[in-house]
From TrEMBL:
Highest taxon of the lineage: Eukaryota
Name under which the protein is recorded: Uncharacterized protein
GO CC terms of this entry: centrosome; ciliary basal body
Gene3D superfamilies: Ribonuclease Inhibitor
GO biological process, one term: cilium organization
The organism of origin for this protein: Anopheles maculatus
Length: 369
C-alpha cells in the first residue's frame, strides 16, 4: 500500500465521529448535580420511569473531586454551578419560614442544611420549637462572648445543651437590647413564658434604662441631664418571675463598660426597679446563685432587695461593684443571721464598707462558723 493511501485513510479516520467514554470523575460530578432527590422520586410523574440514574454505582477509589471544586472562584466572578433541586427547595423553605419546627419530610442531612441556612437573628418566639443542633450551635457561636467555652463544649455536649444555651443567650440579648417601652408590644413576657422550660441560667450584662425622663406635670417639656435615683427607671423585671427553672441569675442595672458619653440614668437605678426585681426573685424557688453587680445600692435599696431574697435557699450571693457604704453593714449582718444555712459564697468585693460597717457585718458572719 502506498504512502498516499495511508495518508488518505488517516485523514478519513480523523473525520469520523468517535464514541468516547467520559471520565469517571465527570460522571460522578454530573450525578451529584443532576441526580434526582428523594422528593423528586416521590412525584407522581416519576412512577412510570424506567431509567434510574440513582442506581448507578461507582467502583473507583472514591477520590473524585466534588463538582464545586472544579469551578475557580475569585472576588469578582460568580459561581456558575447549577443548584440541586433539593437545595432550591430548602432555600425556598428557609425564605418562607415563619416559625415552628423544621418542615416535615426532611432527612437528617437536609435538617442540618436547613439549620445552616436559617438566620440566627430571627425572633426567639419563632425559632424556639426548632430542634436542629446545627442551628443552635450557630446561635451560641454568634451570641456568646466566650468562644473558648464554645470550643470546650464542642462535640462533648448533648443536643439539648446547644438549644438550651442558645435560648438563654437569645433571651438575655432580647432583654438587654430592647427598648423597655416596647417590651409589651414586642411580646417579651410571652417569650419568657415560652422559654421558661429551657432557661436555667440567665446573664444580663447591661439593662437599658427608659429612653427619656418624663417631665413633671404642668411643666413644659425639658431634658434632665443628671436625673435623681427615683427617675432612673428601667423596664419592670417582674417578668422574670415566669422563669421557674432558673437556678442562676446575673444582672447589671448600671454600666459595666462605658461605650457612650456619661449619663446618670445609665449608671443608676430607682427604688421601683429594685422592688420589681424583688417581686420576681421571691417566686424563683429554684434559684441558687444570684449576682447583682455594677449597680448603685444605698441602704434603702439593699434592705428591700435582701428582704425578698431571704426566703430563698441561696448558695451564692454576689454584690460586687455596688457602692455599698454607710448603713449597709448592719443590713447585711441582719440578713446573714436570718438567712438559711445553705449560703456558701458571699462576694462583697469593690464596695465602700469601712471598719464600722464591717464591725456590724461580722455578727452575721459568725453564724457560719
Amino acid at each position: 500500500m502506498s504512502d498516499t493511501n495511508l495518508l488518505h485513510l488517516s485523514a478519513v479516520w480523523r473525520q469520523l465521529p468517535h464514541l468516547s467514554t467520559p471520565l469517571e470523575r465527570e460522571l460522578w460530578n454530573s450525578f451529584r448535580t443532576y441526580g434526582p432527590s428523594w422528593q423528586t422520586q416521590q412525584l407522581a410523574s416519576e412512577t412510570q420511569r424506567e431509567l434510574y440514574v440513582e442506581l448507578v454505582s461507582f467502583c473507583g477509589r472514591g477520590t473524585c473531586r466534588p463538582f464545586d471544586a472544579m469551578v475557580h472562584l475569585t472576588g469578582d466572578s460568580v459561581q456558575d454551578v447549577p443548584k440541586r433541586l433539593s437545595t432550591i427547595v430548602l432555600e425556598f423553605l428557609v425564605a418562607s419560614y415563619d416559625g415552628g419546627p423544621e418542615p416535615g419530610a426532611l432527612n437528617c442531612c437536609q435538617v442540618r442544611e436547613f439549620g445552616s441556612l436559617l438566620s440566627t437573628e430571627l425572633p426567639l418566639l419563632k425559632v424556639i420549637d426548632l430542634e436542629s443542633e446545627t442551628y443552635w450551635r450557630r446561635v451560641v457561636w454568634c451570641y456568646s462572648n466566650d468562644l473558648l467555652s464554645y470550643h470546650e463544649h464542642d462535640y462533648l455536649a448533648p443536643r439539648r445543651f446547644w438549644k438550651q444555651q442558645g435560648i438563654e443567650l437569645k433571651l438575655a440579648r432580647m432583654i438587654e437590647q430592647q427598648d423597655p417601652q416596647y417590651w409589651e408590644l414586642e411580646g417579651l413576657e410571652d417569650t419568657i413564658k415560652k422559654a421558661a422550660p429551657f432557661v436555667d441560667n440567665l446573664y444580663i450584662e447591661q439593662l437599658r434604662p427608659n429612653p427619656t425622663v418624663e417631665p413633671i406635670e404642668d411643666y413644659e417639656e425639658y431634658t434632665i441631664r443628671n436625673a435623681p435615683d427615683e427617675l432612673c427607671n428601667h423596664g419592670s423585671l417582674a417578668v422574670l418571675e415566669h422563669l421557674v427553672n432558673l437556678t442562676s441569675l446575673s444582672l447589671v442595672l448600671g454600666v459595666k463598660n462605658w461605650l457612650k458619653p456619661y449619663q446618670n440614668r445609665y449608671s443608676n437605678c430607682s427604688l421601683e426597679d429594685i422592688e420589681n426585681l424583688g417581686q420576681a426573685l421571691q417566686k424563683l424557688e429554684k434559684l441558687k446563685k444570684f449576682t447583682l453587680s455594677h449597680t448603685r445600692l444605698n441602704s434603702s435599696k439593699l434592705k428591700i432587695l435582701l428582704e425578698f431574697v431571704t426566703p430563698l435557699q441561696l448558695q451564692a450571693l454576689r454584690l460586687p461593684h455596688c457602692q455599698l457604704a454607710v448603713g449597709c453593714g448592719a443590713i447585711l449582718g441582719r440578713f446573714l443571721s436570718r438567712l438559711q444555712p445553705s449560703l456558701t459564697h458571699l462576694d462583697l468585693a469593690h464596695n465602700r464598707l469601712d471598719a464600722p460597717e464591717l464591725d456590724q457585718l461580722c455578727p452575721g458572719l459568725s453564724v457560719y462558723q
